[in-house]
Every structure is written in C-alpha cells, then in structure tokens.
C-alpha cells in the first residue's frame, strides 16, 4: 500500500475513533504546533470561544491565560515525552483531562504529537457528590464523624510537626431524649437542624463543625489555647440557651448543652483518644449540673489531688469501670428476652435480647447505668462480643430465634464481624435464627462503615432489622441502601395509635411499603389489647410490648406463653 494511502487510512481511523467518543477532542499537531487533524467539533464548540480549523495554530485551542504552559507540554510531546493534566475552561468552568504525547507515524524530521481532551466534568461532579455524601451528615449537611476524625488527625500531625495547638469541643444537648419522647422525632430533627445553624453562625470559617450522631456535635478549633477554647465554649452554651425547643402544655422549653474540651498540642495522641478526652470532660460538665463546659484533666492526677465534686465524679466513673470489667471477667452479665409475637396467630416466634448486669448483692442493673461507662472507656467491644457469644450459643442449643442489639460503636467493627462469622461456623447455628437490629441513630454515626457492616451480616445469612423506623430523617434512605429484612415501627407511632388517626396512617403506610418490598414489620411498645388488635388489623406482622410479654431471664422467656390476640375479631 502506498505511503499516502496508508496515511489516509490511519487518519480515517483516528477520525472514526474520535467521532465515536462524543465527550472527547482529538488533536494531531506537527512540529510547528499547527493542527494537522481535529475531531470532536461538538465538544470544541463548547470548549472554545471561536472557530477552530485544521492547519491553524494549536494555540488557538487554548485560553490565553494557560496557553504558554500547555504549549510547552505540546513541544515536549514532540520529543517523545508524555504528560497529563487537568484543564478548567475559563469560558464555562468545565473540566477536561488532557493527555499529550508523541504520535506514531511521524518522522525524526517531521514529528507529530497527539493531544486527547476528555470532558470529565459530569464524572467529577458525581464523584464529588458521592464523596460529599460519604463525608457529611444528611440531616444537617455538617461533616460526619468519619471526616471529623480525619480532620483531627491532620491537625494533630501539624501539631507534632510544627508545634501547633488547638482544642476539640464535644457538644451534647441536655435532655434531648425528652424532646423526642414528648414532642416527637420530627421536632427532634428540626431542633438538631436549628442547633447546627446556630453553631455555624458562632464559629470561624477555619473551625470545623461536625455532627457525630444523634444529639452530639463536635468542633475542631485550630490555634487556640485553653482560655480561647473556654471562651468559645461559653459563647456556644449561652447562644444555644436562647433557642426554643417548642411549646408543650403551654410552657416554652429551652435548649441547654454540656460541652467537653480537650486541648491538643505536640504529642502522640490519636483522634480517637482526643475525642475520648473531650467525651470525659463533657461527662464532667453534665455531672456538674449541665448547661456548661468543662476541660479534660488527667483523671489519675485529679483523683489523687482532688477533693471536690469533679474528683468525686471521676472516682464514681472509675468504680463503675471496675464493675464492668469485673462483670466481664466473672461472667456477671445476664440476657433477658422480651417476646416477639406473631399477631396473626398469637404465637411467640422470637425474643429480643436485653442486657442486664448483676450487682454485688444480686440486684440487676439496667444497661443505661453501665453501658455509657463501657462505651467511654473502650469496653463496649468486649461487651458486644459477650452478647454475641451468648446469643449464638443459646440459638444453637434451642433453635431459638433471637434479635440482638449492638452498640453504635460496633457498627463497622471488622473484628466483630469476624468474631460473629467464626462463632456461627463453630456452633453450626442456622444464621437465619439471628436478627441484628440497627437503629438510624447508630447508622448515622458512620453510614459508610455501617453499610459495610450490615452487608457483612447479610452475607453470613443473618437477618437485619431497621429499628425505630420512622423516628428520624433518614429512615427511608437507610431502607433503600441497607439489606434489611424487617422494619420495627417506632414506638412513638404505636403507643398512642388507638387515639391518633395520624399514627394509624403512618402504621398503615409502613405496612403497605414493607409488604410491597417483601419485608416483615414489628411494632414496639404494644401496651394493651386494643393496640394489639389495631396492629393486627393493619397487617403488622409481629409485635412486642408489656401487654405481650415483659423481659425475663432468657430460659424463662423461651418457655413463656402469650395469650392469643387473634382468637376472634371481637376478642
């Protein structure tokens, strides 16, 4: 084939390739930096302010502000060098990934270069959106725990390298549970949004504000000392105090917050350790009466030297820490089971496991007393592992269906997933007997990790339940993105449903949606026969509550019989 014919075939192939890629521009140029071939006219019209033609200077394809730098890359390509860069068009701010290099077919005397311009604007926008979702809280738009911990780690690295300083504030809204329980979760979400806006207004642009989950916020204050951190914390406490929660019984409820301050500087602390210090200080602020801030101090030295209320509070926590450790070592935890009843038959089909701790005199201590201590001092992984071990052992021995609650801090714990997998394999238990309950509050702490954790349980064959469904902002989103098998209707909609048309409509809507998606439903807080009958008529699959059975030690709960709520329509 003659050389001219081969060249024509090659050019035709290049043009055909470029024409099939509508988001790309292909430019062949010669040693004089003139255009020898140009394809992708549709994209060029968007990229360039004027007409571009073959034979003209390749510099006409470039904005004047960046022309010389890019032409240097073109010249280097003619000598055999390849390079890539991102180009942002000044005309419309679209982004292009540009690759420049030599083109086969040139000669030493007449080298050719090839520049491929790829419009990556939409792809990058999607990537940034996904990154934003992974790093931010969906309700407030603030950064989430994952991103905040990364920011703290970065600041700690600056402290170690350059001697920087700063502080981390942990903000917890006082009595927030009261808002949810009395005014409803919708009011709780609205309050969280108002608080986020108030905190934004008070902080500097250089400060980093995050929502860690639930009613907990955190702030990273770069370049402040203790006095500065105290000043900021006081201003936040005072500002939040002025925000109304809403009215109930004619009384205006006000917001107060407790803030823990952890100072950072050169040292070897991790972000997790700094947050633990701030958490302990916040606990001190609550013990001192709430609506105030406290600075973290080394607990050992405070216990030795202190005689006031703060030192007494520390000693109390240390005592509870010892009791939790002792309970782990001496197997002094107890699992109670609350019956889960199939409403169509009245049969007890499963039990939700509830953790208790035995005191020295044999009394049972509820989890709200000891679990916060376990979480604050890093014992919760051991506690959750104990619960998993007991649940799997019991399920394997009795073919019993059990629902298991895990701490929010366990979601995303790869070690716990591995532990669950090994225990299932060793026991031979049918994994479908095990249902793990995940609440929205737990998931929002770290959505990405929670999804991976949930998928891991699903892959093992375990069932997943979305607890407190309808209680928060993201329930439907979690139902879409997590492999849940059932939804537990939040007790707020169940406890008063016999007298609330709105609650009944919510229950009906959840049942219809769950049925369409092939998921079962469970109603919490079923407190009387009338409620149970209403739930059964609405098509709710299962229910639990004091009317159907109170929590009892697990062996007894397994044998407990519950009277039928489906005997007859008039029963």
UniProtKB/TrEMBL annotation:
Organism listed in the record: Paraconexibacter sp. AEG42_29
Location of the EAL domain: 317-565
SMART domains, per the entry: EAL, GGDEF
All copies of domain GGDEF, residue ranges: 164-298
InterPro entries per the UniProt record, alphabetical: Biofilm_reg_signaling, EAL_dom, EAL_sf, GGDEF_dom, Nucleotide_cyclase, PAS_4, Rev_trsase/Diguanyl_cyclase
UniProt-listed Pfam families: EAL (PF00563), GGDEF (PF00990), PAS_4 (PF08448)
PROSITE patterns to which the protein is assigned, alphabetical: EAL, GGDEF
Protein name, entry field: EAL domain-containing protein
């Amino acid at each position: 084939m003659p050389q001219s014919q081969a060249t024509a075939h090659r050019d035709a192939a290049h043009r055909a390739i470029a024409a099939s890629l509508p988001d790309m521009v292909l430019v062949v140029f010669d040693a004089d930096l003139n255009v020898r071939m140009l394809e992708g006219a549709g994209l060029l019209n968007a990229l360039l302010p004027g007409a571009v033609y073959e034979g003209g200077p390749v510099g006409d394809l470039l904005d004047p502000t960046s022309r010389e730098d890019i032409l240097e890359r073109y010249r280097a390509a003619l000598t055999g060098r390849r390079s890539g860069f991102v180009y942002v068009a000044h005309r419309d701010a679209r982004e292009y990934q540009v690759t420049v290099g030599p083109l086969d077919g040139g000669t030493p005397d007449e080298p050719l270069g090839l520049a491929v311009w790829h419009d990556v604007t939409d792809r990058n926008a999607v990537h940034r959106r996904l990154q934003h979702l992974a790093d931010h809280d969906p309700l407030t738009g603030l950064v989430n725990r994952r991103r905040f911990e990364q920011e703290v780690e970065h600041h700690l690295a600056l402290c170690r390298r350059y001697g920087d300083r700063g502080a981390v504030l942990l903000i917890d809204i006082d009595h927030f549970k009261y808002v949810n329980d009395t005014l409803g979760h919708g009011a709780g979400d609205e309050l969280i949004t108002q608080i986020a806006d108030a905190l934004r207004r008070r902080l500097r642009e250089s400060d980093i504000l995050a929502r860690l989950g639930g009613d907990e916020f955190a702030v990273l204050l770069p370049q402040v000392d203790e006095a500065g951190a105290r000043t900021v914390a006081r201003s936040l406490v005072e500002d939040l105090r002025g925000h109304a929660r809403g009215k109930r019984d004619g009384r205006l409820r006000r917001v107060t917050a407790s803030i823990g301050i952890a100072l950072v500087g050169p040292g070897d602390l991790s972000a997790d350790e700094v947050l633990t210090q701030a958490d302990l200080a916040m606990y001190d602020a609550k013990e001192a009466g709430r609506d105030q801030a406290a600075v973290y101090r080394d607990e050992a030295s405070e216990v030795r030297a202190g005689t006031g209320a703060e030192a007494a509070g520390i000693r109390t926590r240390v005592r509870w820490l010892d009791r939790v450790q002792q309970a782990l070592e001496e197997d002094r935890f107890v699992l109670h089971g609350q019956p889960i009843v199939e409403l169509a038959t009245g049969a007890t089909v499963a039990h939700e496991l509830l953790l208790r701790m035995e005191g020295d005199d044999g009394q049972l201590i509820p989890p709200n007393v000891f679990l916060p201590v376990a979480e604050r001092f890093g014992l919760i992984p051991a506690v959750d592992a104990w619960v998993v071990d007991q649940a799997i052992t019991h399920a394997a021995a009795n073919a019993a269906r059990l629902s298991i609650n895990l701490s929010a801090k366990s979601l995303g714990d790869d070690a716990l997933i591995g532990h669950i997998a090994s225990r299932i394999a060793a026991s031979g238990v049918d994994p479908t007997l095990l249902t793990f309950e995940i609440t929205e509050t737990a998931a929002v702490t770290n959505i990405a990790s929670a999804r991976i954790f949930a998928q891991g349980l699903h892959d093992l064959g375990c069932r997943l339940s979305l607890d407190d469904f309808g209680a928060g902002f993201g329930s439907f989103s979690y139902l879409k993105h997590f492999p849940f098998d059932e939804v537990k209707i939040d007790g707020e909609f169940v406890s008063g449903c016999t007298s609330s048309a709105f609650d009944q409509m919510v229950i009906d809507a959840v049942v219809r949606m769950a049925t369409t998606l092939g998921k079962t439903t469970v109603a919490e807080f079923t407190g009387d026969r009338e409620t149970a009958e209403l739930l059964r008529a609405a098509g709710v699959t299962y229910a639990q509550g004091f009317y159907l059975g109170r929590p009892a030690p697990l062996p007894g709960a397994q044998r407990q019989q519950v009277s039928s709520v489906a005997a007859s329509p008039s029963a």
